[in-house]
Amino acid sequence: MKIFDSIVTICATLLVLFIILNSAAGYEVFESISPIQLLPSFDFIVWVLASLALLLFIAVRGNKLALLIAFFLLSVQLIFRHSSYSIDLTDEHSVKYSFKVLSINVGQFSNDTAAVNQCIELIRSEKLDVVCLQEFGLYYKWPDVESVVSDFAKRTDFQYYDFSPKQGNIFGTAVFSKHEITHIDTIFQLLSHTNEAKVYKLDVNGKSISIANVHLQSYNLFSSSDSLSWHSIQRAIADRNEQVKMILRSQPDIVLGDFNASPGTIVHSMLCAEYIDVQHSFGKAFSPTYKDFPTRLDYLFVNGSFAPKSFYLNPIPPSDHKALVAQIGI
Out of 72, 142, 245, 327, which residue is the most buried by the measure of CB atoms under 10 Å away? Predict the structure, then answer.
C-alpha cells in the first residue's frame, strides 16, 4: 500500500508541475522556451490520462486526495482556457451591416479534383461574403497559379480575389471576396513553404475593413530528413512568435487562419490581448479545429469595434482542418 501511495504522490506532483508550466506558456517571459510552448497542445490528452489514472486509483484502496486535488486544478485550468459563454454585442454596437466569412486550411486539396469540388460546393452553400484559404493551390497546375485561382473564383462566384504566392511557390494563402479589394499588404511570405500572411483592405458598403489571412510557421514535419529535430521545432516556435508580432504591428481589423498554435501559447495570448477570440466568445473553444489531434490551431479574431453575430465549425471540408464560419456585424 505504501508503494501505491508513493505512485499516487508522484502522479499528483507531475500533474501539478504540468499545470504550472502549462499556465506559464502564455507569458512573454517564457515565449522562447520551446518545451513550455508545446505543453498547451496536450491539454486534453493529459486530462484524459489523468482521468483514467484517477479511475484506476479509485478502484484501489489508498490515499488519493493529492491526485484528486491535482485533477481538480487541471479541470479548472481547462475550463478557464477553453470555455466561455456566448457574447451578444448588438447593444454595444450600432450594426449597420453584417458579412459572412469563412476560413479553412484546404491542405493543398490533396491534389485531388474531388476535394476541390467538395470545397467549392461547401463555399457556394454557405452564401459567403469573404473566403480566406490557407495552403491553396494544386500540384498538377504547376506553375500556372493564375488558372487555379481564376477558375476557383469563377466556380464560387466571387468577383474579387487574390492568390499571389512568392515567386517559386505554387501554394499559399488565397482570398475571395464579394467586396472590392482596394489594397494588399504582404506581412511575410516564405519561399518553399505555404506559410505567409497578407492584409487585405475591402470596401464593404462604403466602409474600409482590413482582414489578415494568416498561415503561421509550422513544423514542416515531412519537408526534410531533419524535420523532427528539436532545433527545427525551436526555430518554428520562435519564427511563429515573431510572425504574430509582425501581424499585430499592421493592426488589421480581423485576423484569421491557421496559426499552428494551441490556446494557452504565447501566440494565442498575444492575439487575445488585442482581439476577441470569436470561437471562445461563443463558448465553443472546447471544439478542436484540427481533425487529427484534439486541439485548436485555427482562429478568427476581431477587434472590439466589430460585433460577432454567430460562429460555428463546419467539419465537412475534405481537409485535416475544419472550416471556421462567422457572421460579423460592422
Answer: 327
Q: Rounded to an integer, what distance in angstroms lies between the CA atom of residue 260 and that of residue 299?
A: 10
Q: How many whole angstroms separate alpha carbon 169 and alpha carbon 239?
A: 19
E-state strands within 259-297: 276-277
Strand partners, 203: 180, 208
Please write the tens of the pLDDT for every residue from 3-12.
777 888 888 9
Strand 307-314 and strand 196-204: pairing?
unpaired
Q: Give the dihedral of Cα atoms 223, 225, 231, 236; nearest 10 deg.
A: 0
Is residue 23 within a helix (H) or strand (E), and if so which, with residue range?
helix 2-24
Q: Which amino acid is at 218?
A: S
**How far from the centroid of its chain's Cα atoms is residue 48's Cα?**
22
Residue position matching grid coordinates 465553443: 284
State the CB neighbour count (10 A cutoff) for residue 86. Answer: 11
Q: b/e for 98-126, b at 16 or more Cβ within 10 A?
A: bbbbbbbbbbbbeeeeebbebbeebbeee
User: Cβ distance 270 to 298 under 8 Å?
Assistant: no
What are the beta bridge partners of residue 327? 100, 310
Cell of residue 116, nine digits: 476541390
Share of the chain above pLDDT 90, in %: 71
**Domains of the chain listed by start with CATH number:** 2-82 (no CATH), 98-329 (3.60.10.10)
Helix axes 43-58, 2-24, angle to 10 degrees: 160
Strand partners, 290: 321
pLDDT in tens, 21-54: 999 999 999 999 999 999 999 999 999 999 988 8
DSSP category for residue 311: E
Q: Three cell numbers at 127?
A: 452564401
124 contacts: CB under 8 Å, gap ≥ 6: 156, 157
Q: What DSSP designation does 179 have?
A: S
